[in-house]
Write a structure and sequence with these properties.
globular, four-stranded parallel sheet, Rossmann fold, 12 helices
């Protein structure tokens, strides 16, 4: 059985994540009191596998009356023999404020005396135990609902696969560093096609830009060094039963250098029989 606990900050996309899991056939429960998790685990373990094979439970700050007991609750679940994975969603504070302003919904930790930003920060404090226990963090600051659904589907698929899944993500530093990355590599030191008029409007998947980089020794050295680093350390992560590693490659705008290097790394590691996914954050917004 795959058992997910979906948590995170209000407005970060937890409902979308649960809907994506439900579409995959997961039995989903939103806002179950945390103290009932062990009882749910007993019920699921007692059922024939043909009844409910996969389950996902949403737990967030609406559960605040039960969060204090969460560590002991999770420990009890482990003693029962039910393996779970926590998926934690988050976003930048200004993004959460904007989302609440646009939807006009009330944050669960605000009232007549508590401002929205104060409620968001209080929620971050309450959810620290879940944040620390999570095996996968997703920063939805620059993610569309469609992209989030795709990421959750990928994670759920990876959860039932013993192999390691590598997500290579390109991004632009001027738009912020991805918060959900396990490794971040800065490639702004290699030549930038942006300064060439004929290449400026193109991106890292265009043949002319690829040809430009193939002539640059610095680009090749950067790719080789990142390959070497990952090849040295991925076996250790496999031994720790990690199923998902995100490698973020950043340049200034996320259009040329990072895109090219992500694609080169993805092609290389696919040849080594690893499950590889690619996301170009800034290209998806253009």
């Amino acid at each position: 059985m795959n058992y997910f606990i979906v948590s995170g900050l209000s407005g970060s996309g937890k409902s979308i994540a649960l809907q994506a899991l439900e579409d995959l056939g997961y039995y989903c429960i939103d806002n179950l009191p945390a103290t009932l998790l062990p009882e749910l685990a007993k019920q699921l373990l007692a059922m024939p596998q043909t009844d409910i094979r996969n389950c996902a439970v949403g737990i967030d700050s609406r559960n605040r009356g039960f969060l204090e007991a969460l560590p002991s609750t999770l420990e009890e679940m482990e003693k029962l023999g039910l393996t779970y994975k926590i998926l934690f969603l988050e976003a930048d504070e200004h993004v959460l404020v904007k989302r609440y302003s646009e939807t006009r919904r009330r944050h669960p930790l605000t009232d007549g005396e508590t401002a929205l930003t104060e409620g968001i920060r209080r929620e971050q404090e309450l959810l620290v135990p879940l944040h620390l226990a999570a095996v996968r963090h997703i920063d939805t600051s620059h993610t569309t609902p469609q992209e989030l659904r795709a990421m959750v589907r990928d994670i759920a698929g990876a959860g039932s696969n013993t192999s390691l899944t590598l997500l290579f993500e390109s991004f632009g530093y001027k738009h912020g560093t991805p918060l959900d990355a396990d490794f971040v590599f800065d490639v702004r030191c290699i030549p930038n096609p942006y300064w060439y008029d004929e290449l400026r409007s193109l991106n890292g998947v265009h043949p002319q830009v690829i040809e430009f980089f193939e002539k640059k020794e610095d680009a090749r050295r950067m790719i080789d060094h990142i390959k070497s680093f990952l090849e040295s350390w991925l076996p250790s992560f496999k031994q720790e039963d990690r199923s998902y590693i995100t490698v973020a490659i950043g340049c200034t705008g996320g259009q040329h250098r990072s895109v090219y290097i992500v694609n080169q790394l993805a092609d290389y590691f696919r040849q080594h029989k690893l499950t590889v996914q690619v996301r170009h954050r800034e290209l998806s917004r253009t």
